[in-house]
Amino acid sequence: MPEELRKKAVLFDVDDTLYDQTVPFMEAYAQYFGENPPVPARTIYPVTRKYSDQIFSRAMAGEITMDELYIYRVKKAFEDFGVSFSDQEALAFQRLYAHRQDYIRMSPLLEEILEYCSGKASLGIITNGPAGRQWDKVKSLQAERWIPHENIFVSADVGAEKPDRKIFDYAKQKMGLEDAEIWFVGDAYPLDVEGALNAGWNAVWMNRRNREMPQQGEQSPQEKRRVLCVRTEEELAEAIRGILQAAGK
């Protein structure tokens, strides 16, 4: 089938893709520490994500509890700055953070992006995490205004998590995308971008934090075209328009 005639599909990650994950973090941080935090919120946030990524798969496999993950990422992050944090303090902060995530919203521009895609491409979500927590986020974001419930795939429900190809193949099969050109939009390069590429998809890297791209081996021009990097929602909107307009949408 000619490329320009192929069905298009765009699937999204949730955290730090459909919403800016620093917003609930900053709100919880300000509530917990007040006006004199030991480390600036924007400084500590990426460090907590680094330590969370280190053991997330172990939590999803049931090797450690989610509370153990929360304690580890907060304590280790503060240790990097010479600040001692107890298990109880880490869990107290996590409770505030989880509470603020109950009120997350998409930005008006992201809503416009999904509205633009609606009717022009098949839309879906693939997200890693505990089922209840991730579905609560989907509900808070009101994502089902544009994305059908059956096109939303949570790793805990599927039994596989990004970057495992199984979850991408599962979504592809359930959405009937065998002959489609598929794009996945996500913020975590090893999970979202590499996972999508390994599944034969294309990827848009939502690089809100201006991270450096991991070192890659020699890539062909065709392989390089399969990844677009954007740093803002405005750039994401432009990239999505380009993807869909290339198919005459």
Outline the secondary-structure elements.
Layout lengths: L6 E6 L9 H12 L7 H20 L5 H14 L7 H15 L6 H10 L4 E6 L3 H11 L10 E3 H4 L6 H11 L4 E7 L2 H10 L3 E5 L14 H5 L1 E4 L2 H13 L4
Helix pairs in contact: 1-4, 2-3, 3-4, 5-11
Outline the structure in words.
- With 249 residues, the protein is an alpha/beta fold.
- It is built from eleven helices and six strands.
- It has a six-stranded parallel β-sheet, sandwiched between helices.
- Helix 5 runs parallel beside helix 11.
- The radius of gyration is 18 Å and the shape is globular.
What is the 3D form? globular
> Which structural category fits the helices and strands?
alpha/beta
Major sheet strand order: 3-2-1-4-5-6
Q: Tell how many strands the DSSP assignment holds.
A: 6
Short description:
The chain has 249 residues and is an alpha/beta fold. It contains 11 helices and 6 strands.
Descriptive labels:
249 residues; alpha/beta
